[in-house]
Structure prediction request, 496 residues.
Amino acid sequence: MPKITSSAHVFANSVAILDPNGEYTYQQLIDASNQWAYRFLLGATDLDGARVAFMVQPGFHYVAVQWGIWKAGGVAVPLCVTYPIASLQYVLEDTGASQVVIDTDFQEVLLPFVSASQLKHHLVHDEVTPQDMSLPEVSSDRPAMILYTSGTTSLPKGVVTTHGNIDFQMSCLVQAWEWKATDRTLCILPLHHIHGIINVIGCSLSVGATCEFMPKFNAVDVFSRLLSGELTVFMAVPTIYFKLISHWDTLSTADQHVIFDTLLKFRLMVSGSAALPVSVMEKWHIISGHWLLERYGMTEIAMAISNPFHGERRPGHVGLPLPGVSVRLMGDNEEIKEELEPGEIQIKGPNVFQSYWNKPSATQETFTEDGWFKTGDVAHLDGGYYKILGRSSVDIIKSGGYKLSALEIEEVLRVHPDIEDCGVVGLPDDEWGEVVAAVLVLKNAITKEEINTWLRARLPGYKVPRLYHFVEELPRNAMGKVTKNDLKIMFYRGSP
Ligand code: MLC
Ligand code: AMP
Prediction:
């Protein structure tokens, strides 16, 4: 069982969670997660790795369900709360989930499918009679969680992490960033990805700190919580800092001074999941007096490289290997790269995931023969600090901190009856890092708005292209492969 669920007894009377419904102690979290575990066990002694999916609003119930699954010996599969049914169905079918937990807000989208598939389901607010049973011993090498990541294949892959992985991922950050029980943080990130799950909820609750939830990001509300003077740690993706800066720009000088004085008292402010532009880091320093701590991570490895808590936080760099994590840069000819030579980031350590769910060959291909995980990100070392230079695949797009697969979006677009062919690329964007853009060859006339409405039934909003360009034919190289750089150039020339 992850240490986070057993160490909670030490902080029993402290406030663990604050969400829109109220305040909850660690003891309430222990009690509620035990009850969830009993509900999942359905009289059995151990779920033995059965997958339990849950579509629950960020907050107390989300964490209680997650811990309940772990305590019962199940594998937690958090569902994105903005997914349309097609994306939810993919995850439920791919994991072979045997039970699903549904929050009131999501019954309309999920319940018809779950009922039709005769999946065992639980509603978060169902009245249940409290039970008392014994819970299984769950060893650290057992799978704990499956998170879906988009990559160089058209369909998202499930990343399986063990309890041991999760324990290490949290304890490593607690050590590096000096988390303490007196900390209080704000969770504004989606909870189907590691940034929110491990770095924010996991770290805070593993040390007895308090985690506040704001289920939907909004710059005005975030500033109002930051200004409460109660928070000590804040973590976000660069797009969020960009949006906060845009809001700050509209405020009076007097308000800006109050913000500076309050934010200066924070212990730590972190940025990650995408490259932090130096201009954003510098502007945030003017706003808050803080040099953001930028770190590098990935669903498969959680966090691997981080600027130091004490010491120089170098703009444009992701820092040094975290304690216990080994990092190397590998060249195309299997040679380890030295200072200022670009190479692929490869990672080894207890943070590295176990496998891609049901995909043994994808798992094998992503590791070197000597067991290093190949990230696909290219970096160089600059005076001991790693600097990310790019990615080995043009088909991976990072937008708002979300990793998107151009291939996945193309695959869905090609199903549209009026679309003959398409190519999807990421275009640089100050706010989003990259925005998704699609070049289409049409069979029949159709508007961008019609395409977007159709896509939103099949993909979450953050995967839907922001820009379209229509052509007679896609540019291809001698091998017949679409030349993605030519697609990008079309948008710089202007879209019709
Ligand atoms: C949303 N929109 C996007 C978008 N996300 N557009 C382009 N790119 C995106 N990524 C669109 C929506 O479709 C919507 O359009 C409009 O923006 C507002 O949507 P929203 O969801 O309300 O946006 P907003 O609330 O402003 O959200 C922005 C955000 C969100 C930055 C809060 O994108 C977010 O939560 N990002 C974090 C993702 C994350 O946690 N990644 C970590 C992965 S783990 P319309 O037309 O409907 O108005 C990882 C490892 C690591 O990367 O190192 O951490
Ligand atoms: P995900 O698969 O959603 O976990 O996204 C992981 C990817 O995010 C990494 O492979 C990187 O490409 C990117 N990433 C994470 N942190 C940073 C960072 N600080 N700078 C640049 N890219 C980052």
